[in-house]
């Protein structure tokens, strides 16, 4: 059985070295779909649930929304993006360092890993960068 909960967050990023407009610093209102897969809980307060939506919301808020929302998300291995982040941090502005280029594809992998580490049985992470463009990650076999 699978359940899905949808979230949104606003972030800025850039893709340094991109051969188009994404090389520029810009922002998205990201839509995030988290799908959890598990058997149904038998008995107790959560009887008949894969996972309580309220619990899922709390974990996603803590692990993803809080660090990502209104942050400059950047590739810590990229010098130019790191220099911009250092300036923002100097001004006490919010940044989030990732270990990879901040494409929608890479961000799904990052989000999947964070939720897995938080103990969620993540089935898939789908991240919409615009209303018509999304990436989906379903684990290491992808
Ligand atoms: Zn973008």
Q: Count the domains.
A: 1
Number of helices: 3
CATH homologous superfamily (4th level) name: 6-pyruvoyl tetrahydropterin synthase/QueD
Sketch the topology as an H/E string, one letter per element.
Answer: EEHEHEHEE
CATH architecture: 2-Layer Sandwich
Give an overview of the whole structure.
One of its GO terms (molecular function) is 6-carboxytetrahydropterin synthase activity. Pathway: Purine metabolism; 7-cyano-7-deazaguanine biosynthesis. The active site is at residues 22, 70, 129. This is 6-carboxy-5,6,7,8-tetrahydropterin synthase. It comes from Neisseria animalis. The protein is α+β, with helices and mostly antiparallel strands. It has a single domain (2-138), classed as 6-pyruvoyl tetrahydropterin synthase/QueD (Tetrahydropterin Synthase, Chain A), CATH 3.30.479.10. Helices cover 30% and strands 32% of the residues. It contains three helices and six strands. Strand 5 (122-130) and strand 6 (133-137) form a beta hairpin. The model has no long low-confidence stretch (mean pLDDT 97). Zinc ion binds next to strand 2.
